[in-house]
Amino acid sequence: MAATPLVLVGLGPIGRATLARALERRGLAVVGACDADPALAGARLSDLVAGAPRSVRVVSAIGDWKALPKGTVAVVCTSSQLAAAAPTFRALLAKRIAVVSSCEELTWPWRRSPRLARELDALARRKKVALLGTGVNPGYVLDLLPAVLTGPCLAVRAVRAHRVVDAALRRGPLQRKVGAGRTVAEFTTEARAGRLGHVGLPESAELLCAALGFGRPRIVEELLPKVATRPIATDHVRVEPGQVAGIDHRLVATAPRGVVELHLEMYVGAEAPRDEVEIDGDPPIRARLDGGTPGDLATVAALLNAAPAMAAAAPGLRSVLDGPFPLCRARG
Amino acid sequence: MAATPLVLVGLGPIGRATLARALERRGLAVVGACDADPALAGARLSDLVAGAPRSVRVVSAIGDWKALPKGTVAVVCTSSQLAAAAPTFRALLAKRIAVVSSCEELTWPWRRSPRLARELDALARRKKVALLGTGVNPGYVLDLLPAVLTGPCLAVRAVRAHRVVDAALRRGPLQRKVGAGRTVAEFTTEARAGRLGHVGLPESAELLCAALGFGRPRIVEELLPKVATRPIATDHVRVEPGQVAGIDHRLVATAPRGVVELHLEMYVGAEAPRDEVEIDGDPPIRARLDGGTPGDLATVAALLNAAPAMAAAAPGLRSVLDGPFPLCRARG
User: Fold this and answer.
1) Domains of chain A: which residue ranges?
2) How many whole angstroms separate alpha carbon B201 and alpha carbon B263?
3) Cβ-contact A203, A146 below 8 angstroms
4) Which of A29, A131, A222, B157 is paired with A316 by a 20 to 30 Å CA distance?
5) CB-CB under 8 Å, A148 with B327
6) pLDDT surpasses 80 at A295
7) Burial, B7: exposed, middle or buried (Cβ in 10 Å; 0-12, 13-18, 19+)?
8) B326 and A157: CB-CB below 8 Å?
9) Are B284 and B146 in contact (CB under 8 A)?
10) At A332, is the pLDDT very low, low, confident or very high (cuts 50, 70, 90)?
């Protein structure tokens, strides 16, 4: 089987990690990379990530690619916000390049950005390529996994999922994004301005409500600081007792035929990182993943596990619910 | 959306439970039932299962049905063995009726019954209907669920799954099938003759090896008795200390690119029933379902959750890997 030609768009921490791991995969061939940062324009990919093909140079815009192999798939790691990433998606789809992206809002855009979702779906169908938002959260632990856990149930009334992440083990930008090292007052101001926190809980809730036939939910979200009770130092930040260690983010989605409750704690020094899912169903199901699903690695994995099937996937804007199953077929 | 017309074939404990639960589901309409037992021939379904339509009478053979609604799906709960169930599958497929079955060997028949698998696949394709073997074990806890748990992994080297079932909470035939109440000598004789134990571990292992790209496995199985250390009484059997409480069934599948280890303990009085999955991967994943996935209910659920999609599924012999995702869309 020929390798799937892959281009990377966005060479931040997740994009570079995805690139490094893509190079290790037999079924993928990295044929291009794009980043808007002028400092990277024209750089040899091999100078940015060891082992990358020397012949590939970073372009500044999708339009700079002249000819890409047929069946090329783009992995886009640029923005959490759909509006910010949409021009990139349009440019790729216009070139008939299938897209898989870590853009959190792309995971389930039909509810919050219905116009953009319809426009991208129509463009993808017209160009006969697929577009998918995936990752570990949203895209797996708080949505697809709970949905699959209902498989042995005769009836489901509610789904509760709780994810605890030790942000100290994650990249610097994420530690800052959860407010580690801020005062509670700073946190509150920044959170109100939407500059802190996690993007994707409503997407997960809406995906679950759609998957389980709950109907359209009314969603309430609450973002509180998780305050440190002991000093915590990571490679990127130092948190004193009384300062913010991270986020305590809760969501309740009340739909006509069921309820989804999501709880995400992401803070430096988190004890007992884990993912827990409780299906209030017949029979009830309680699942626990001790240690959790390490976020950055797992997001890279979700992107790379999805990529090979994208070239052959049915055209249009897809969701992880449309399959194929998220499986890892790579060796260590 | 119109309800999916459903016929039940095989009115044993699982068939009747499936029927009873199908009657509660809005999206399904029970239009027929078939059982080879002459004592049931012509019986009103409502006399066998409360709430069933009075107009439906049990037929003794598939051929006795004259006209069934277009898009009818059959749920077949007759035998664990593919060879025994095959005539039923042939008769249904010949009538262009899609089939979902609890027949354990149908879950992954390509390796152990390749000729029969090819024949049924060809017939199903010719008749443009789908045929699927599913359930909870095989079909979910020891195969599909572990496969989906690899979704956030960059690489997978091995999968280990352990299921502990309290047979005391299961139906009488299952308690006898695991040897509860036998002496160890009787157990050994019966096990050697293939009259005891669980059908489906090799199917789960082969499904996993195929899903994860491990290649064809070499499989070793070991079936030992689980001996009671205290007296246990259920509604169906009494077990004295030193007698057999159930089975301790292990399987190791060694494939060119990975290893699958399955361990199934099914015995009366089992402590801490649970399902555990360990993915030896990058990152490693450890999942635990406390209380496990109750077998009989969950098998019924797996059949009913799969049934609605069967009428529209791509023709041919399918596996749970082909999707759609096993989801419950029913209310309590």
Assistant:
1) 4-135+297-322, 144-292
2) 9
3) no
4) A29
5) yes
6) no
7) buried
8) no
9) no
10) low
d(CA A220, CA B177): 50
Nearest chain A residue to B295, by CA: A152
List chain B residues with CB under 8 Å of A325.
Answer: 144, 147-148, 151, 211, 321, 323, 325
Number of Cβ within 10 Å of residue B230's Cβ equals 9
Residue B269 is encoded by which pair of tokens? 């009085």
Which structure tokens are listed for B296? 């009989």
Q: Where are the alpha helices (DSSP H) in chain B?
A: 13-24, 45-48, 82-94, 114-127, 144-149, 172-177, 184-192, 201-211, 295-310
Q: Which residue has the tokens 């490094």?
A: A20
Q: Which amino acid is it at A162?
A: H
| CATH 3.40.50.720 given to domain B4-135+297-322 | yes
Answer for the pair A137, A289: CB distance below 8 angstroms, yes or no: no
The per-type count for chain B, helices as H runs and strands as E runs, is: 9, 15
Q: Poorest-confidence range of A177-186, A305-314, B164-173?
A: B164-173
Identify any residues that bridge with A33 across adjacent strands, giving them in sequence order.
A8, A58
Burial of B205: CB neighbours in 10 Å, binned 0-12, 13-18, 19+? buried
Distance of CA B108 to the CA centre of its chain: 11
Q: Is 3.30.360 the CATH classification of the domain at A144-292?
A: yes
